[in-house]
Design goal:
Distance between the termini: 54 Å
Radius of gyration: 21 Å
Number of strands: 13
Order of helices and strands: HEHEHEHEHEHEEHEEEHEEHEHH
Strand order of the largest sheet: 3-2-1-4-5-6-11
Helix content: 40-55%
Number of helices: 11
Strand content: 5-15%
Shape: globular
C-alpha cells in the first residue's frame, strides 16, 4: 500500500510529461505560412481533408462557444491549436472535428504564463479568444480572465508580428459603465485588445443558446427541479438570444473577409424578447403544469445573493451556486442586452440567424 501511494503521483507525472512530448511533436508538424499572403482566405472553405490555409489558435476551445468555433474552422481543412487546462478526456471530442493531426491539443494552459501563450500562437496566422467566466471563483476573478488575460494575449500577438487575424469573443451588453462587473470587465478587455491590435475584430453575441448552453439549460433547471424560479424585476429586461451555429458561422465569415478587421459585430437573434417571455416560452415548451416563477425585486435579489458570492470565492464550485444566483447576475437583469441601433450584425455578414422557434 505504501509503495502504491508513491507510485500514483510518479505515474501521473510520467503521463503528463509524455502528453506534453506528444503535443510538442504535433506542434512541429504544423505547416508554415506566408505572411505576404492572406492565408486565412487564400484557398477558401473545403472538406476536412482539404488545405484551408488557416492555422488557428483558439483559446477557450473546450468551452461552449469555443468548441463550435473549432468545429467550423477544422471541418474546412484548417489546422487548429487548442490550449486547455481541464482533464484530457474533456477535450478529446475536439480531435474528431478535424482530419487526422489537424487538431492539436496543448495541455496545462495557464492564463498567467506568457511563454505558454507565445508557444501556443507560434505557428498560427489566426488567434481567437473565447475565454470567459460567468462567475468569480476562489482562483479567478472577472479582472483576471476578462481584462488581464486579453491584455496579455494582445501584447504577445502584437509583438509576434505573425498573426493576420485576431477575433475576440465578447458579449452583448458589455460596457465600461455597466453595473455588472462581468460585463464591465468584458468591455475593458475589448478596449485593451483594440489598443494593441487595432485591426482585431470583436464579436458581441447575445445570450447564446444551443444543446449545451448555459442560458436555457439553467432556466430549465430552475423551472423543473427547484421549488421556485426567481424572476428579477418581473423579467422586464430585454434580450436577443442567438443560436450557437449562427455565432460559429459568423466567425468563419469574418475570417473570410478582411473588411471586417477593426470592427465590432453585435450578434443578436432576430427576436427581441423580455425575460418574462422567455420563461413563458420554456414553460410552454416543457409542458409544465405549474408556473413556479416568483417575482424578485432587484434590491432583494442582491441582498439574498451576496452571501453566495462570498461562498464562491472561498469554496469549490457547488451545483446549487449557479451563476444566475449571484448579485452580479442581478445587476445584468436591470438593463437590456440588445444590439445598439445602427450597429453591425448578422445582416452585414450575410447571415440569416435562426428564430427562437427554429433553434
Amino acid at each position: 500500500m505504501q509503495s502504491a501511494r508513491y507510485a500514483l503521483p510518479a505515474l501521473q507525472k510520467f503521463a503528463g510529461a509524455r502528453l506534453l512530448a506528444q503535443n510538442a511533436r504535433a506542434m512541429s508538424t504544423l505547416k508554415p505560412f506566408d505572411l505576404n499572403a492572406n492565408n486565412a482566405v487564400r484557398n477558401g472553405p473545403g472538406g476536412r481533408s482539404s488545405i484551408g490555409g488557416v492555422v488557428a489558435t483558439v483559446f477557450g476551445a473546450n468551452g461552449f462557444i469555443g468548441s463550435y468555433v473549432v468545429n467550423e474552422i477544422s471541418k474546412r481543412g484548417n489546422q487548429v491549436v487548442c490550449p486547455y487546462r481541464c482533464n484530457e478526456n474533456k477535450v478529446q471530442p475536439l480531435k474528431q472535428m478535424g482530419d487526422l493531426g489537424q487538431v492539436v491539443l496543448l495541455p496545462e494552459f495557464d492564463i498567467h504564463d506568457d511563454e505558454y501563450i507565445r508557444r501556443a500562437i507560434s505557428r498560427s496566422n489566426v488567434v481567437i479568444n473565447c475565454v470567459g467566466i460567468r462567475q468569480e471563483t476562489k482562483n479567478y476573478s472577472y479582472k483576471d480572465v476578462h481584462v488581464d488575460f486579453p491584455t496579455r494575449l494582445a501584447k504577445i500577438v502584437a509583438e509576434s508580428g505573425k498573426v493576420e487575424r485576431f477575433i475576440q469573443v465578447s458579449e452583448m451588453g458589455a460596457d465600461v459603465s455597466h453595473a455588472s462587473r462581468r460585463l464591465q470587465t468584458k468591455a475593458v478587455g475589448d478596449e485593451a485588445i483594440m489598443k494593441y491590435i487595432p485591426d482585431a475584430t470583436i464579436i458581441r453575441p447575445g445570450n447564446v443558446v444551443g444543446i449545451e448552453d448555459y442560458f436555457y439549460n439553467n432556466l430549465i433547471f430552475q423551472l423543473s427541479y427547484t421549488i421556485v424560479a426567481p424572476v428579477i424585476n418581473n423579467g422586464a429586461n430585454k434580450v436577443q438570444p442567438t443560436y450557437i451555429l449562427d455565432v460559429a458561422d459568423a466567425v468563419v465569415k469574418i475570417l473570410k473577409d478582411k473588411k471586417t478587421s477593426g470592427k465590432t459585430y453585435y450578434l443578436g437573434g432576430p427576436e427581441t424578447l423580455t425575460m418574462r417571455q422567455i420563461y413563458d416560452h420554456l414553460i410552454d415548451t416543457l409542458r409544465l403544469s405549474n408556473d413556479d416563477t416568483v417575482n424578485l425585486r432587484y434590491e432583494l435579489a442582491k441582498m439574498l445573493y451576496k452571501p453566495l458570492d462570498t461562498l464562491r470565492t472561498k469554496l469549490p464550485e457547488f451545483p446549487f451556486l449557479g451563476f444566475m444566483m449571484s448579485s452580479d447576475y442581478a445587476e445584468e437583469q436591470v438593463a437590456d442586452s440588445v444590439a445598439p441601433a445602427g450597429s453591425l450584425g448578422y445582416k452585414d455578414l450575410s447571415i440569416s440567424p435562426a428564430k427562437r422557434s427554429e433553434e
